[in-house]
Write a structure and sequence with these properties.
Helices cover about 25% and strands about 20% of the residues. It has 19 helices and 23 strands. The longest helix is centred in the middle third of the chain and has 15 residues. The strands form 6 sheets. It has a 7-stranded antiparallel β-sheet with strand order 3-2-4-1-10-9-11. The protein has a 6-stranded antiparallel β-sheet with strand order 5-6-7-8-12-13, covered by helices on one side. Strands 17-20-21-22 form a 4-stranded parallel β-sheet, with helices on both faces. Strand 15 and strand 16 form a beta hairpin. By secondary structure, the chain is an alpha+beta fold.
Length: about 525
């Protein structure tokens, strides 16, 4: 029986999909511990970062075994699967696709044989020089990124990095990483291993989080501190931007492959990370509550009740209620299971729309002037349906408050936003958006208010999805896009693009590789 792909079902509202994370990564070095089960629970804690596929690689000191499949962590693994993974080092991954389609071949950890043994790798983030890396892989001796025999092959940026790390037989993995990682551009928080050593590395901007934890008999690296908590590891520190960590029987050692230029993703505080995670010394829940407080100060309104769009808007709604003095209440009940269904709704069920996910408490909201707090608006379909539903349930007024600024720019570093053309905040004023949603009023938090709530310096945060100021130079739009490597196959010649410009093999497939708003993002108005 085919397994579901694990994606949360966004088809309840046609064309609506919220911001999606790239991935969650987890690594553990712990002789004497059940590292596969530790990885399972770590990935379970990181499930919100990716729901398409999951995998764990384990080394017993002489060989690496990889187990991965499409679906949620709880679908992919059972006691039998975990029981077959014996060893003292493990790398785990939960994926949401950003580069490369959501297919089994692109599930992680990726695996490569090397002259010295094997290599398994998990990646959180998204790279912007994928075409350049593909050209570098093609130049490796005996390496072919895409099979000319027609067999299935991985088509993601992670597989390219894995090939490069495994492609220097005269160097150790650690030495190769020092050579390769400075050439990798974009967002990457990596956990990888050979038979004897666990490695962790973070891009010089530190766009995606990565933390180091201590077990009684070992070490853990993970995307978020919440994953350390669930497996009983104590937080030591963050992996620094531009840092490479190696852990083996000789202990832990660290080196730097690039100068740190911190630009952490501010959207981690807004939505991506778990509320019980701490990033750069700041608890995410505390930041979200503070965003609500600042939103109340910036956009007050006379109302009777503050409610949240569960669960992403809850902390900010609590903060809004505290600062405004308006009571906070539960006006919407969320179905905790509908998001896990793999049954596609028919047209009749589609017409029910958001009611499959949320249902109003009529007795609570009837006759009330409501402040409805949410974390972000992408296309606006969900909010539009929500306003209609609340009015049908008897709400006297509906005032929408958003705890992040308008999303106007695509992300190339691991969040799968819509293209610029699909983002409702492009080409419309806030007042116009409010009218299209059917709300009595609409207001967003300011960029400065959001940043103040994170307690981080503005210059150390990536805010590109809100202000279009990207933390690094982006390549030609033709060399960006989720299906870049699939497009090479569609081009017929199956050659990677040359550095800095598209090859003739990519001509005619620009519609495939120029997506995600790349051209718009590079063409500032």
């Amino acid at each position: 029986m085919p397994r579901g792909d694990g994606r949360l079902n966004h088809d309840l509202l046609p064309g609506e999909k919220g911001p999606q994370d790239a991935c969650g990564v987890f690594g553990v070095w712990a002789p004497g511990e059940e590292v596969a089960k530790l990885s399972y629970f770590g990935l379970y804690a990181l499930q919100h970062r990716g729901q398409e596929s999951a995998g764990i690689a384990v080394s017993n000191g002489s060989q690496i075994l990889v187990f991965k499949d499409m679906g949620l962590v709880s679908q992919v693994f059972d006691e039998a699967a975990l029981g077959s993974l014996h060893g003292h080092i493990a790398v785990g991954h939960a994926r949401y696709s950003t580069t490369g389609s959501s297919v089994w071949e692109n599930a992680q950890p990726t695996f490569r044989a090397t002259v010295h043994g094997s290599l398994a790798l998990g990646h959180n983030g998204n790279l912007v020089n994928t075409a350049e890396l593909a050209a570098m892989v093609a130049e490796l001796p005996g390496e072919e990124h895409v099979s000319r025999s027609g067999r299935s092959a991985a088509t993601n940026d992670t597989d390219l990095v894995t090939a490069l790390l495994a492609g220097h037989p005269d160097l150790s993995i650690e030495e190769t990483a020092q050579l390769v990682l400075p050439k990798v551009k974009g967002a990457f928080s990596l956990v990888f291993m050979d038979e004897h050593t666990l490695y962790a590395a973070r891009d010089p901007q530190g766009i995606r989080p990565l933390v180091l934890g201590r077990l009684e008999r070992g070490w853990v690296v993970a995307s978020e501190t919440a994953a350390l908590d669930i497996c009983g590891a104590s937080f030591i520190r963050e992996v620094e931007p531009g840092e490479l960590i190696a852990i083996d029987e000789n202990g832990i050692r660290t080196s730097r492959f690039a100068e740190a230029k911190p630009k952490g993703c501010v959207f981690e505080y807004v939505y991506l990370a778990r509320p019980d995670t701490t990033i750069a010394g700041r608890n995410v829940y505390v930041s979200r509550v503070e965003m609500g407080r600042k939103l109340a100060a910036e956009a007050p309104v006379e109302a009777d009740l503050v409610i949240a769009t569960p669960e992403s808007g809850t902390p900010a709604a609590i903060g809004y209620a505290e600062a405004s003095g308006i009571p906070y209440g539960s006006g919407l009940v969320k179905n905790a299971y509908v998001g896990r269904t793999f049954i596609q709704p028919n047209q009749t069920i589609r017409q029910l729309g958001i009611r499959l996910k949320l249902n109003p408490l009529k007795e609570v909201i009837q006759g009330k002037r409501l402040v409805v707090v949410d974390d972000s608006i992408v296309r606006g379909n969900t909010q539009r349906a929500l306003v209609r539903m609340l009015r049908e349930a008897g709400a006297a007024e509906v005032h929408i408050r958003i705890s992040s600024p308008p999303v106007k720019w695509p992300c190339f570093f691991g969040i799968d936003f819509a293209t610029r053309a699909e983002l409702i905040a492009n080409g419309m004023t806030v007042e116009e958006i409010g009218r299209t949603l059917g709300a009595d009023s609409l207001a967003y938090i300011s960029i400065d208010g959001m940043i103040e709530a994170t307690a981080q310096p503005k210059e150390k945060l990536c805010r590109a999805c809100f202000d279009g100021e990207y933390p690094m130079e982006l390549p030609d739009p033709a060399l960006l896009g989720k299906l870049l490597l699939e497009a090479e196959i569609a081009g017929g010649q199956q050659k990677p693009a040359t550095r800095g410009k598209p090859t003739s093999d990519l001509d005619g497939v620009q519609t495939l590789i120029g997506g995600h708003g790349a051209a718009d993002a590079l063409r500032r108005p």
